[in-house]
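Final report, section 2: Outcomes. Of the targets proposed, Polyphosphate kinase is the one most frequently requested by collaborating groups, and we therefore present its record in full.
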Amino acid sequence: MEQFDRQEYFSNRELSWLLFNERVLEEARDKDNPLLERVKFLSITASNLDEFFMVRVASLIDMVNVGYDKSDPSGMKPEQQLAAISTAAHHMIAQQYTTYNRMLKKLLDEKNIHILDVDELAQKQLDFIDHYFNREVYPVLTPMAVDSSRPFPLILNKSINIAAFIHKKNSQIQHREFVTVQVPNVLPRVVKLPDQEGHTSFILLENIIRRHLHQLFVGFDVIESACYRVIRDMDLEVDEEDTEDLLKEIEKQLRLRERGNVIHLDVEAGISDRLIAKLFDRLSVSQENVYRVNGPIDLTFLSKLVGKIEAPGDMVYSANRPFIQYELLEHSIFDAMRAGDIFLHHPYESFDPVIELIRQASRDPQVLAIKMTLYRVSGHSPIIRYLEKAAENGKQVTVLVELKARFDEENNINWAQKLEKTGCHVIYGLVGLKTHCKMALVVRREENGIKRYMHFGTGNYNDITAHFYTDMGLLTCNEQMGIDASNVFNMLSGYSEPPYFHKLVMAPLWLRDTLMDLIDNEIKNAQDGKPAFIRAKMNALSDEGMIKAMYRASAAGVKIQLIIRGICCLRTGIPGVSENIDVHSIVGRYLEHSRIYMFGNGGDTLVYLASADLMPRNLNRRVELMFPIENAKIKKTIIDLFDLMMRDNIKTRVLGSDNHYEKTDRRGKIPFNVQEYLAKMAAQRTIRREDSLRERRTFIPIKGNEDSQNPDH
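The predicted structure is given below as tokens.
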């Protein structure tokens, strides 16, 4: 056995993810966070956990069902992982409801924001829900009896349902009939109630329906009712090798996905054994996958609740103003890019320059082609709109739309079809690989010939998530990067496979080997007595080979600092193995999403940004890009940003040798929240910039941008 192969040197991937969700839950419990932000954090933990069950737990159940018995690097077999997950998840869900019932609900009440049950309503409110039920809800409901002629209906994934026992009125035989009613997802789950001055009250739709169940079963008495919810296996199984039309196959799989096996059942804590036995029988779910919850099923409703509260005041984060590089918006972005590389850091800097690159390219007569990868985009994406305009204006537009982006498949199918209708050439990538890289290429004819302008990023081309995901991007017209970018698109659209790239590092071809070489170089430098370090930021670290390489580097004396938001299967503090490795996790207002890889390189630090985390899927089964930062000023900016992140002592948790995360010890230290600091600095830059513009406009008339009156701008 290799020195660094021991099972105790690795954490289980799934249990590590659950530790991450615990860190998010801590934010819901943190008294220093504004109240409604705490409520949103609790909603996020519930949404995260749902996806975890739908994908990760479902995958492990599939492994057990087919007899797959191989251990993961930590030595756990699928069956053992499921047992450990069940224990941890039951504990987490209990914590979620303790947070809801004992903390947040009480604090909301103190702020005169109430989530009420039927028995807490005033007569005026009862009259309102009676009228609301008859007018809005009753026409939509479909009560479902279950008997020999009416089989158990399909219970949709994540839908809230009401199970009940009823029996015929005045019948001498107390025969219980089982019925179920789906709470319609076409109606708002959170219903605002009429209330007295200064109070805001809500009731959940399922509670309105339960009050009126007798109206759905006329001639019957309702003996018992309880809410329940199922989570199904929602992973897509697409055999791309044997699929002639990937788009049609994914559409077919999306329809089948709603019928995936039930892998999780939520029920109200007070449900009777007899009623739950009916659900067991009909849904084929095992006891360990049943969760009795002490409160409303599916806490994701809390994010909708927050959206219905008017004038939240100090109960939410104060609005932050991103810095806008007006020179990129008011003048030719191509001129600005020729003057030098441009670094973007979202959400502290506006995402507008990325949109502006595509906007200007769509109407610039010198632009010949636009090529772009799209993984996740917003529902009303301006980038899509400008790509369509570019095609209408006669540009050659090629868009790679990743149809297999999990839970965005339907959205991406719609975008792909829309783009094709406007004349864009839409491709779906390479067989067996997800295309996860973030890259835009604009080809422009200029006096000196063809020139390429690129944007490379660590995050999606999504103008909405750019407001709360931290990501980094580079606008450049570097010639060698441009050649590489063209080669990437040629690979994605055809069969071309160049023997090497000049600057870009692509997975699955070279990224793993390149990172290994960079780590080995640090090991050699440490052995030669030269400065040696690795500093990296990512969302997850689970790749066994990468972890062992870092152990080798640590053992050789290389200092390693890692900022990992989520999964980390590496263990710290192992004598002779990982004593030189520090792991920090920042969980705060913004979702840390940027990927940075830095290497000491004997004193000449190498800095890269990337779309990839260090996970087997990113290195082996995805098209990813790592790109170098060669501009000295930008390189220093990224190094300084990493230093600031390592200084954070408010939202940072440090991974200890006991495999638990603890907040940093702030005794004797000045409190420092890196996200709030960067947001404050961005706002100050914006104010200074606007003051400067006002001064200039006082003295010098400035000609307005010819596109400024265009409604698309």
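The first strand starts at residue 113 and ends at 115.
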